[in-house]
Amino acid sequence: MRSLKFAVITAAIVSCGAAIAWAATPEETVAQREDAMKTYGASVKTLTGFVRDNQGSIDDVKAATAKMAGVSAELLSLFPEGTAVGVGKSAAKPEIWANWADFQTKVKANHDAIVALDAAAQSGDAAKVKAAFPAVGQSCGACHETYRVKKS
User: Fold this and answer.
1) pTM
2) Binding site listing for heme c
3) Separation CA 125–CA 45 (nearest Å)
4) Which of 12, 56, 68, 89 could disulfide-link to 60, CB 3.0 to 4.6 Å?
C-alpha cells in the first residue's frame, strides 16, 4: 500500500514538473493567439460569404461556427500578462491588463455571441444564422476597438 501511495505521489510531482517545463513562452503564447485569431478570421470570411452572398453551405457554416466556439472558450487563456505589444507580433494593448475585468466582460460577450451563432448554425436554419451573425461582429469590434493596436 505504501508503494502505491509513493508511486502516485511521485507521478503527481513528475507531472507537475512536466507541465511547468511545457509552459509556453510569451512569444509562443502570442503566436498561439495569432493562430486563434486567424481561425476566427477564416470562419468570419466563410460566414460573411454565406450571410451576404449566399455562398457556401450550411455545413460550411456549422464547421466555421464550431471552430469559433472552440477558440472563444479558451480565448482568455491566450492573454496572460507579459504578452502585450512588443512581444512577438502582439497587437494587444497594455490596457487589457489594466482593465482586466472589462476585458473579461468583452471576451465573455464575444463567447456568448459565438455560442448563440453556433447554436443557430447547428440547427441548420439559415435565417437564424443571419440573425445571430451581427452580434458576433459587434462583440469582436468592441474588444478590438479598445484593446487592439490598429493595423496600419
Assistant:
1) 0.81
2) 140, 143-144
3) 19
4) 56
Residue 87 amino acid letter: V
Question: What DSSP string describes 67-95?
Answer: HHHHHHHHGGGG--TT-STTSTT--B-TH
All structural domains of the chain, each given as residue ranges with its CATH number in brackets, are 26-76+87-147 (1.20.120.10)
Return d(Cα 93, Cα 143) in angstroms, integer: 11
Instruction: Enumerate the known binding-site residues.
Output: 140, 143-144
Write out pLDDT tens, residues 37-94.
999 999 999 999 999 999 999 999 999 999 999 999 999 999 999 999 999 999 999 9
**Structure confidence by residue, pLDDT tens digits, 124-145:** 999 999 999 999 999 999 999 9
